[in-house]
Amino acid sequence: MRFKHLHELNAICTAESKTIAQLMIEEQVQETNTPEADVVKQMSEYYQVMKEAVRKGLTEDTTSRSGLTGGDGKKMAQYIRQGEACSGDASALAMAYALCVSEVNASMGRIVATPTAGSCGIIPGVFISSQERFGWTDEHLVNGLFCAGAIGYVIANNSFISGAEGGCQAEVGSAIGMAAGAMVELRGGTPEQVVHAVGLALKNTLGLICDPVAGLVEIPCIVRNGLGAVTALAAADMALAGVRSAIPSDEVIDVMLEVGSAMPSRHRETAQGGLAQTPTGRKMMEKLAKPKAKRAEPEDKSEITGADAEMYTEAGSPQGKQAE
């Protein structure tokens, strides 16, 4: 790649009058020696998987194998229909869709790691809810994924994207930064505004620990995905309004590396600290560790129709592969 840092990404795009998506597509073509049409086609297929995961989360049973989670995305969708969302319908819908995708992951459904499975709901939640709101084409959202990918590339090569290495700031935090920056570009913002959105988003997640109850990507991971989608929208709005990250975004990424490196191992995906070691967290883990009789298969709810299915509008209807 011709860039390693966000300031370099901004400089190249500004000098060549390109969007970050356009530059990333060109770089991907060169790196992989793959025709542009094939590079874009693959990303388009990823987006269809994301949309299918949202649909599945809204219309099917997403109870996890552990039985600890499932159905919260549907609850949010039902709540939105009451028209009283404290954060507004746009934020609430992004939250609902992010929860849905993360619950599909927890129930062994098909998702796209963006950048990891533990943070898989944030970008789909932001992208698909925004597509429905603004009437954007799939092609536009696919370009947004390339922009998000460029941001993720910089973070991964200068800090962490793994919770085991840098805590949840590396997974959920990175996804929030990727979604925020991409949202700015999708709304017509400049590369410079994209970069500021990333810094604004990441500053809000520095130090976030990875403390999964029983070591499962469920509690608190799913809720963090939902709230992460809202944070990404807020950071994008700040950047589009002209708010700047006083600490340069590349320096914020450096701080993520510093903080993650100093984080105790018990707060890095080991389930030995944080929420995982609360009295309730330990009880959950002990219960799951006990031998069980053959678990009854959950009721098949794949044919759910009506209000929950209607939440998934035509603009976001899946056209790609079915979840496996």
TrEMBL record:
Residues 264-324 are annotated as: Disordered. Its EC number is 4.3.1.17. Pathway: Carbohydrate biosynthesis; gluconeogenesis. One of its GO terms (biological process) is gluconeogenesis. It comes from the Bacteria. Residues 17-276 form the Serine dehydratase-like alpha subunit domain. It catalyses: L-serine = pyruvate + NH4(+). Residues 283-303 have a biased composition (Basic and acidic residues). Its cofactor is [4Fe-4S] cluster. One of its GO terms (molecular function) is metal ion binding. Keywords: 4Fe-4S, Gluconeogenesis, Iron, Iron-sulfur, Lyase, Metal-binding. Pfam families: SDH_alpha. InterPro entries: Fe-S_L-Ser, Ser_deHydtase-like_asu, Ser_deHydtase_asu. Belongs to the iron-sulfur dependent L-serine dehydratase family. NCBIfam families: sda_alpha. PANTHER family: L-SERINE DEHYDRATASE, L-SERINE DEHYDRATASE 1. This is L-serine dehydratase. The gene is sdaAA.
